[in-house]
Design brief:
With 269 residues, the protein is mainly α. It contains ten helices and two strands. Helix 7 runs parallel beside helix 10. It is flat, with a radius of gyration of 25 Å.
C-alpha cells in the first residue's frame, strides 16, 4: 500500500493565507453587497411602509384602540422611515448572513464549516419564533393590561391616545427583545464548542439563570406579571433545551470519534 502524505489545508477545506490588504478588500466587497441589499429592501419597504405599519398596529386595533395620533409635524414621516428600516433589516438578513459566511468560510476547515452551518440556519428560525411569540401573544396581553386603565378616574374620563412613534418603539422593543432572547441556545452552544463553558457549569448555574431570566423579562416587558412570565418562562425552557442540545452534540461527537477509522502507522524505513 502506497504511503499517503499529510492532509494539506486545501484538501481539508481551508484556504491559504491572504495578505491583510486582500482581507480588507474582501471585507469591503462583502459590506458593500450587504449595504446594497439593505438599500434595495429599504426602498421597497418604504413604498409599502403604510401596509407594514398596518400589520404592526393590528394588535392595538384588536385590543380595542381605534385612534392613534402624532404630536409633531414630522413624526408620521419619521415613523414610516423607521418602519421601512426595521423591515428592510429583517428582509436583508439572509443576504447579510450569506455575505458574512462567504467572508469567514474560506478560512475554516471542513469540520468547522459543518459545525457552524447549523447555527447559521437556526439563527433566523429562532429569531422568527421569538418575534412571533411577541407579536401574537405577548403584545396583545400587554396592550390589554395597559389599555385597561382607561375609564372614569375620580370623575374625570381617562383615555389612552398613543402616538405613532411611541407605539412603534413599543412593538419594536418587544419584537427585538423576544427575537434576541430566543437566540440563547445558539449563544450557549457556541460557547460550549469554543470551550468557554461546559455542560456541567451550565447545570450548576441553573438557579442563577432563573433569576436572570426574570430580571431580563422585567426590563424588556411592561410591569405586569403576565408579560414578564411570557418572556421569562420561554427563556428558562430555552436554557434547558440548550443543556440537552449540548449533551446530544457531545454524544454525537464521542460516537463519531469512536467509529472513525484509524489509519495504520507507516513502517520506519
Amino acid at each position: 500500500m502506497s504511503a499517503e502524505g499529510p492532509v494539506t489545508a486545501e484538501e481539508d477545506g481551508a484556504g491559504g493565507k491572504m495578505p491583510l490588504l486582500d482581507h480588507l478588500i474582501e471585507l469591503r466587497s462583502r459590506l458593500l453587497k450587504s449595504l446594497l441589499a439593505v438599500a434595495v429592501a429599504f426602498g421597497v419597504c418604504l413604498y409599502f411602509a403604510e401596509d407594514i405599519f398596518r400589520i404592526l398596529v393590528r394588535p392595538l386595533v384588536e385590543a380595542g384602540q381605534g385612534r392613534i395620533i402624532y404630536t409633531q409635524l414630522f413624526e408620521a414621516f419619521f415613523v414610516q422611515i423607521k418602519v421601512a428600516l426595521f423591515a428592510s433589516m429583517m428582509i436583508a438578513f439572509p443576504v447579510i448572513a450569506n455575505q458574512l459566511w462567504k467572508f469567514v468560510a474560506p478560512g475554516l476547515y471542513r469540520n468547522e464549516k459543518r459545525a457552524l452551518l447549523p447555527f447559521i440556519f437556526a439563527t433566523p428560525l429562532l429569531f422568527a419564533a421569538g418575534a412571533s411569540l411577541a407579536y401574537f401573544v405577548t403584545v396583545p396581553v400587554a396592550l390589554k393590561f395597559l389599555l385597561g386603565f382607561q375609564g372614569d378616574l375620580g370623575g374625570i374620563q381617562q383615555e389612552a391616545l398613543p402616538s405613532v412613534a411611541n407605539y412603534l418603539s413599543f412593538i419594536m422593543q418587544f419584537i427585538m427583545a423576544f427575537g434576541i432572547c430566543f437566540l440563547l441556545p445558539i449563544l450557549l452552544l457556541l460557547l460550549e464548542r469554543s470551550g468557554i463553558v461546559t455542560r456541567q457549569q451550565l447545570i450548576s448555574a441553573r438557579r442563577y439563570m432563573i433569576v436572570a431570566a426574570f430580571a431580563i423579562a422585567a426590563v424588556a416587558t411592561p410591569p405586569d406579571i403576565l408579560s414578564q412570565f411570557l418572556l421569562a418562562v420561554p427563556l428558562i425552557l430555552l436554557y434547558e433545551l440548550s443543556i440537552f442540545a449540548i449533551w446530544f452534540t457531545q454524544r454525537r461527537r464521542k460516537t463519531g470519534a469512536e467509529t472513525a477509522p484509524v489509519e495504520p502507522l507507516e513502517e520506519a524505513k
